[in-house]
Amino acid sequence: MTELHLWLRHEDRTTERRTPVVPSDARRLVEAGVTLTVESSEQRIFPAEEYEAVGARVVPAGSWVSAPPDAVILGLKELPDRPGELVHRHIFFGHAYKRQPGAAALLRRFAAGGGALLDLEYLVDEGGRRLAAFGYWAGYLGAALAVLQQRGRLAAPLTPTSKEELDEVLRPAAGDAEFTALVIGALGRSGRGARAAFAAAGTEPTGWDLAETRDLDRRALLAHDVMVNAVLATSPVPPFLREADLDAPDRRLRTLCDVTCDVGSPLNVLPVYDRTTDWAEPARRLRKEPPLDLIAIDNLPSLLPRESSTDFSAALLPHLLDFTTASGPWRRCLDTFDRACRELGTG
Question: Which residues are catalytic?
Answer without folding.
Answer: 77, 95
